[in-house]
Design a protein that fits this description.
104 residues, mainly beta, 7-stranded antiparallel β-sheet, 1 helix
Length: 104
Amino acid sequence: MYSLAERKGTVAVSGSYLDGGKLQGHIRRDVIYDMVKNHETHHFHSREINRYGNIDSVSDEFLASILPDFYVYPNEKISYIISKQNEHSFLIKIGSRPLLYCAN
């Protein structure tokens, strides 16, 4: 969820952590952020992390070992290049490395 006009939004982070096929914990948190755009580069700043305590059972320390700090701690930054591919699709990259292709 985001608002381009207000340049802020929420990223939902959710999933399960498995080690050797065995469930170790669940991840469920929202990252409240604001964003500044410079051409195709979007600079995101985490303002607040809301953990769903009854679901989120993975420690911040562990999560920070597999995800950028932006998704774990408040007051962290990350930048993505978001390039329009055609009328209905975008490519999200860090530098020249593609991460996600989004289309509808």
